[in-house]
Amino acid sequence: MLPKRVMEANMRLNKRTIDGLSVKEKDYFVWDETLPGYGLRVLPSGRKTFLIQYRDGGGRTRRKGLGRYGTVTAEKAKEKARELLGGIAHGENPAEEAKRKRGAAIISELCERFMSDYVPSHCRESTAKEYRRCMDLFIKPAFGTVQVEEVQRSDIAELHHKHRDKPYQANRTLGVLSVMFNQAEVWGLRPEGTNPCRHVRKYEEKKRERYLSGEELSRLGQTLADLKTEGDESRSAINCIRLLILTGCRLREIQTLKWEYLKGNSAFLPDSKTGPKRVYLGPAALDVLAGIERIEDNPYVITGKLPGSHITDMQKPWRRIRMAANLEDVRLHDLRHTFASIAVGSGESLPMIGKLLGHSQVQTTARYAHLADDPVQGSADKISEELAKLMASKKFININN
Which residues form a coiled coil (predicted)? Predict the structure, then answer.
């Protein structure tokens, strides 16, 4: 029940009448005689606040403040009151809406709920790590304290533009935000169909294509052999790189490879980026596996420092190894590209290469199609040379004469 006031009066609220209102021992209300429901509250402290009063759908009396007099003018307050009272006539409830907004989730809270309630059952561990990285480095610093429903498309576009010098990162962050806001709609934290990431265009990403030449592969092989002999690098790191080259696998597939997955000349991975996958092992890969010591109570082929663990950080050893081999612009993932380039150069078809790499879509393998130009060019050169020999022969000349 609302407390009783000293008095309630009616008058036309404007600067002159408001300035003339006296302060009393208890607060009281003055209502505008030209706009029912719009009024002013005067406190014993002298503070005067604009408000509206109305009945909600359940018949309860509700009030909503419109701002303090002095900060808000009488004209602006009345304009806002007229707008809100018009909405109330159509079933809106501004006081309840304000209450809901005060308790609404902010982006940092949405991030944590997304990571705990959505990600574990929908994403792989590597994806979860990338999501966490995007949230901690880019999303929370930009929107952490902003209410979920208050984020606008212009805000998303501004963040995306801010990182335009790193198109890949800008696009990944946009992708995380899009999935997160879709889920916010599912949870009722935003109205349906209001994902602010819609129509924000991703930047064009130039796919990096780096393949090791025969000479570079030879140099890397010699470097790995020297490091193994000298003991300057861990055997786990060396074996990991050898298997990456010889199988075309993704890094995590080799890092988490278990002995139990190996059957004959294949490795059956229960999970990969594209789901369960069979890796076909050639003689050289089998030789590497045969030379790896099995450690008791450790199920992994490429073991880590802790008991029962697999190697987790390959970036640091790879930086040392590539420097020693003078291949400082080569990434670990480029070893997978090199496997594909050698396969194309050997005359393998794109569907076969896709099968070897474990691609789920033909379009993914198609990026290697242009590499087939080299063997085709080689055939063209041979045919051209043969034709030139014939054309230069006396027999060919005599026929033309």
Answer: none
